[in-house]
Design brief:
The radius of gyration is 25 Å and the shape is globular. The two termini are about 40 Å apart. Helix content is about 30%, strand content about 25%. The chain has about 675 residues and is α/β, with parallel strands linked by helices. A 9-stranded mixed β-sheet has the order 3-2-4-5-10-9-8-6-7, with helices on both faces. The protein has a 6-stranded parallel β-sheet with strand order 13-12-11-1-16-17, with helices on both faces. Strands 18-19-20-25-22-21 form a 6-stranded mixed β-sheet. Helix 5 crosses helix 6 (about 260-270).
């Protein structure tokens, strides 16, 4: 690579850089390539699922823009339809997100989802009030599938995801109810004005026929033709890179994930391998042989990967919080957000050092990112609404990046793609399927799949809560499971807000053959426990002898940090699961299988335990746990467990039975 080149391009991983104003610009401009027909405006009320609405609309070949909730009617002229998203707020509160109710009188069809449904009813003169309890689960709905165009072609009963703490208690004048659940109205419409609302989320996978509902709205109610089919976005992406870069060189920062790898391969195809330099930073928290696998895969398509190994530097790293408090070193941290912050800041320092060693300065580079459309929507959500709740902190931003962004020297060739489309593109570019279909892996790596602890157990559940859990288990079970609270807290998402709550585990009666496990009833129990006991967000099945709250050692915790020995213990268990997934060809059907090390010793001093989280999702915002015997071979699962139980220092293995929501995919 010539050091005298006047301009280069940097390509960062998909999570790199909250795109700021550029995110909002891209989201409101559309692709501009091959676009035909009418567009949909999605008004963002701060929803965690906002990008899923966008994805569902685009899957149906209709173009969409994400806009702030307070966008005035005059700026919505020309749109063929409007969808108002969910959000964490209450529409009747003084600090509710601003909304111009004139939007509902434009004569344009409107679909309100969750918060959007409540907002529509409230603005039109109905009543919305706080419910007696939250709902964050799949429910069976009764729907008007004969009289409502929104539900045309569906059954009289449908399964859908409800996530709400407020409910419609009085329907607005001129509207009628179209869906019901547990005595509550969860769907309304004023067909004469083409105004429709659903308390449930048609955009998520857990609403089984939600795609049909959105199709009915777009095509049946709005009469939008499905003709948004951009002509060869692959070729358009190549053309954009060439036009931006010209005859200069490209530097690629490859995380190992599919987005940055595809972006690297795309750059190679656009300008040739001799003008592409790729760098991979190994922070010490990668999976077993992960860095070598990425290096080989990119080498096979003509990209040489420069490895930067800096595990000791990360382990010893400190940083400062936004309030100026120094935290660290990382090897002594237990708080999840502290770990993320230190890893993110250290990654940026290492990146800056690498950039300096390569002699790159802001006046000589363009920045190209592997950012996807959902990444832009996530960062754009805070531009659209200050009400969005943070579920976890993201990293990857540098002084160089910020300077380049300010100068407008950024190109994002994948910004019009969703994850599944990137995978298709990756295969077309010649990347191996095992890399293209590599399961999503958090930027901080295995460091956030270790629940660190100073040796103190989580506070015990109230006796009344534990009694209620046992009563629910007895109600829905056909055998007497033992119930124990795990001595850790795990992160969850309920409504559009973060939670950090207890987890419980069920174990079989002594002498019961594990091959007779009734998975269906276990998942049914896991659905009801967090719905009826708000202090619990996760339910698991535990292998081994039965344990309950009176068993010896159930509160024993092993001090656990992000040290080499702890990482090696998790790597070994993770590798067992990864090998089994590949051997059974499950990488295409199981969306993600986090393997989590948590510090429960269960009576054996110094030991820890492993949680398995086989998970199925298309949207990566909601999903369900994989069902053994249906989504994966039971024998494959039992083989995994048997091998993990032999890993030195592992006491127990649990299987996470929790859907998302209320449990997140990751445990922290």
């Amino acid at each position: 690579m010539s050091e005298t080149s006047s301009t280069r391009t940097i390509v960062l991983g998909a999570a790199a850089v909250a795109a700021g104003g550029l995110a909002y610009y891209y989201l409101t401009q559309g692709s501009g390539k091959g676009s035909k027909g009418k567009k949909v405006a999605i008004l963002d009320a701060g929803a965690q699922y906002g990008k899923l609405i966008d994805r569902r609309v685009r899957e149906l070949h209709v173009e969409s823009d994400m806009l702030p909730l307070d966008t005035p009617p005059e700026k919505l002229k020309g749109y063929a339809a409007i969808i108002i998203s969910g959000g964490p707020g209450s529409c009747y509160e003084a600090n509710a997100p601003a909304f111009n109710k004139g939007v509902l009188s434009m004569g344009v069809p409107v679909l309100g989802v969750c918060y959007g449904y409540q907002l529509m009813n409230y603005c039109e003169g109905g009543t919305v009030e706080k419910a007696s309890r939250r709902e964050d689960l799949q429910e069976t709905l009764q729907i008007d599938n004969k009289g409502s165009k929104l539900f045309k072609g569906l059954q009289a009963e449908e399964t859908a995801l409800l996530t709400h703490g407020d409910s419609v208690t009085k329907i607005a004048p001129g509207f009628r109810a179209t869906a019901w659940s547990n005595g509550l109205t969860v769907g309304i419409e004023c067909a004469e004005r083409n105004l429709y609302g659903t308390q449930f989320h048609p955009e998520v996978d857990l609403t089984e026929n939600g795609r049909t509902m959105i199709k009915n709205f777009l095509q049946g109610i709005c009469a939008i033709q499905p003709n948004f089919t951009p002509d060869s976005r692959h070729q358009a992406a190549l053309a954009e890179i060439r036009a931006t870069v010209g005859d200069k060189e490209i530097l690629v920062l490859v995380s190992g994930g599919v987005d940055s790898s595809v972006c690297a391969a795309l750059c190679r195809e656009a300008v040739g391998p001799e003008r592409v330099t790729a760098v991979h930073i190994d922070h010490g928290f990668m999976r077993k042989d992960e860095s070598e696998t990425v290096e080989k895969a990119l080498g096979n398509v003509g990209i040489h990967l420069h490895m930067v190994r800096c595990g000791p530097e990360f382990a010893a790293a400190h940083t400062k919080t936004p309030k100026g408090k120094t935290i660290g070193p990382l090897k002594d941290c237990t708080a999840p957000e502290d770990k993320r912050m230190i890893i993110g800041d250290t990654f940026m320092r290492v990146t800056e050092d690498t950039v300096r060693k390569l002699g790159i300065s802001a006046d000589k580079v363009y920045l190209a990112q592997g950012t996807l459309r959902p990444d832009l929507i996530e960062s754009g959500s805070h531009l659209a609404s200050s009400k969005a709740d943070v579920i976890k902190t993201h990293h990857n931003d540098t002084a160089l990046v910020r300077e380049l962004r300010a100068q407008g020297k950024i190109v994002e060739p994948l910004r019009d793609f969703h994850k599944d489309e990137v995978r298709e593109l990756g295969e077309a570019l010649g990347l191996p399927r095992h890399l293209v279909w590599r399961q999503p892996f958090p930027g901080p790596g295995l460091a956030i799949r270790v629940l660190c602890s100073d040796g103190s157990p989580a506070a015990a559940l109230a006796a009344a809560d534990l009694t209620k859990i046992k009563a629910l288990v007895a109600k829905y079970a056909t055998i007497p499971y033992s119930v124990v609270q795990l001595p850790v807290l795990t992160v969850g998402v309920q409504g559009d807000c973060r939670s950090y709550k207890s987890a419980v585990a069920l174990s079989l009666p002594m002498g019961t053959d594990p091959s007779t496990i009734k998975w269906k009833e276990l998942f049914d129990i896991a659905k009801h426990v967090p719905a009826e006991v708000p202090t619990v967000s996760r339910t698991c099945f535990m292998w081994g002898t039965p344990l309950d709250s009176d068993s010896e050692g159930v509160t024993d915790i092993t001090a656990t940090y992000c040290s080499n020995d702890v990482m090696d213990q998790l790597r070994e268990a993770d590798a067992i699961v990864t090998d089994s997934i590949l051997a059974n060809d499950l990488q295409y059907s199981l969306s993600q299988v986090p393997v989590v090390l948590f510090p429960a010793a269960f009576g054996t001093k110094g030991n820890r335990s492993i949680a398995l989280r086989p998970f199925i999702t298309r949207d990566f915002m909601t999903g369900k746990p994989a069902v053994p015997g249906v989504d994966m071979p039971i024998q494959a699962l039992f083989d995994m467990v048997a091998k993990i139980e032999k890993v030195k220092g592992i006491s127990r293995v649990v299987y996470d039975l929790t859907a998302k929501p209320p449990g997140t995919t990751e445990w922290e």
